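Module 6 notes. Inverse folding takes a fixed backbone as the condition and produces residue identities as the prediction. Think of it as a translation problem where the source language is geometry and the target language is the twenty amino acids. Below is one complete input and output pair. Work through it position by position during the lab.
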């Protein structure tokens, strides 16, 4: 069957329509892409016309902007540091040992810490744990001169020790002493020390707690300790804690940190305790402590044996205050039966539950003071008035 011209024309039209339907979207897509490329090229050329050179031969120093006066609190801080730092010293300790090969005496460095000049006679205060077990001491003053020092005395129960250097021909600057009894949480404080061997470092903070307790090197509890958030690091031990008037209010003694570096919790022995102990160490090389003249059992033994709290007397020293008033120690009778001694439960109106309570109550007293001792004997509560005496 022959195809007519009209049929061929129709098929040709249909093919053209299908081709236009297929190529139309493709042309539009390429057009959009071309426009996007042109736009991107325009943006790049507009904002990044040429690669930036690495160097500029015309570079100059920036002009200095005038600073103006320091703020009032900054000036105060600088004045406090400049004044107090003259009294702060760096302490290096060493031990002496015989060389096994030639028997010569050799020094072995032990550690270092901080201290401060107590008075113009060359007495220097630091922590007891700074000088513990050391045989040689060297003190570097703020003028960078180094001097040999000798140990005057130490009080491990309050972590305080006193050294002395030869002050002749030296122009010493002593610390300004303040009081710790009137301190308040929130007061600004300044700590000066030599952390990690870095000389004359200042940190600032506030008093973040009062009446804290820490353990001394001999196991006794130091009470009424100051807590501060001023950074205290290894080497700060023995350095002064100052108030905003530049007065000594405490001796930096410990930090609470699992890593051994400052974690925002530092402790200082208060100045009032220091001012009571240091003069005794300078006078006698030891602290004259009032006591009863009794030997006591540890707290765990009392709790296990009696199932209660209190301080159980193990023995009474002869010719002591306790023996004169008839206090009784623990002993065995003729049949071998154990007779418990007196159990101290209060001193005056202060309840006594542990050894630490008894030590704290007696530490507040002076030699010659009288206290009323409350105790249990054979289950009966008794009391006696005791005059405290010097404990050798």
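Target side of the pair, the amino acids:
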């Amino acid at each position: 069957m022959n195809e007519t011209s009209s049929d061929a024309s129709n098929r040709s039209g249909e093919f053209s329509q299908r081709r236009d339907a297929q190529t139309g979207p493709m042309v539009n897509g390429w057009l959009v892409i071309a426009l996007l490329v042109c736009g991107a090229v325009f943006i790049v050329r507009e904002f990044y016309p040429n690669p930036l050179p690495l160097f500029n031969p015309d570079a100059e120093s920036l002009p200095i902007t005038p600073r103006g006066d320091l703020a009032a609190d900054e000036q105060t801080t600088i004045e406090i540091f400049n004044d107090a730092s003259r009294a702060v010293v760096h302490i290096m300790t060493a031990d002496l040992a015989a060389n096994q090969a030639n028997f010569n005496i050799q020094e072995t460095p032990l550690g270092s810490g901080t201290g401060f000049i107590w008075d113009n006679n060359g007495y220097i205060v630091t922590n007891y744990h700074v000088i513990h077990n050391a045989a040689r001491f060297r003190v570097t003053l703020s003028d960078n001169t180094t001097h040999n020092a000798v140990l005057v005395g130490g009080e491990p129960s309050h972590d305080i020790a006193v050294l002395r250097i030869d002050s002749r021909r030296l122009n010493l600057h002593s610390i300004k002493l303040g009081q710790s009894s009137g301190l308040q949480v929130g007061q600004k404080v300044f700590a000066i020390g030599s952390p990690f061997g870095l000389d004359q470092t200042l940190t600032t903070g506030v008093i973040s707690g009062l009446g804290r307790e820490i353990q001394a090197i001999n196991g006794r509890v130091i009470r009424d300790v100051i807590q501060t958030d001023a950074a205290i690091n290894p080497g700060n031990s023995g350095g002064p804690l100052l108030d905003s008037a530049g007065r000594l209010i405490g001796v930096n003694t410990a930090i609470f940190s699992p890593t051994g570096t400052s974690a925002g919790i530092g402790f200082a022995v208060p100045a009032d305790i220091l001012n009571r102990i240091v003069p005794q160490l300078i006078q006698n090389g030891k602290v004259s402590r009032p006591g009863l003249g009794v030997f006591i059992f540890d707290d765990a033994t009392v709790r296990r044996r009696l199932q209660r709290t209190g301080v159980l007397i193990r023995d009474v020293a002869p010719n002591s205050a306790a023996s004169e008033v008839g206090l009784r120690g623990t002993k065995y009778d003729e049949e071998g039966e154990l007779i418990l001694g007196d159990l101290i439960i209060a001193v005056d109106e202060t309840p006594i539950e542990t050894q630490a309570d008894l030590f704290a109550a007696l530490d507040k007293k002076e030699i010659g003071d009288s206290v009323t001792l409350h105790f249990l004997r054979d289950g009966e509560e008794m009391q006696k008035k005791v005059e405290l005496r010097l404990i050798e």
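Reference fact for the lab report: The first strand starts at residue 88 and ends at 98.
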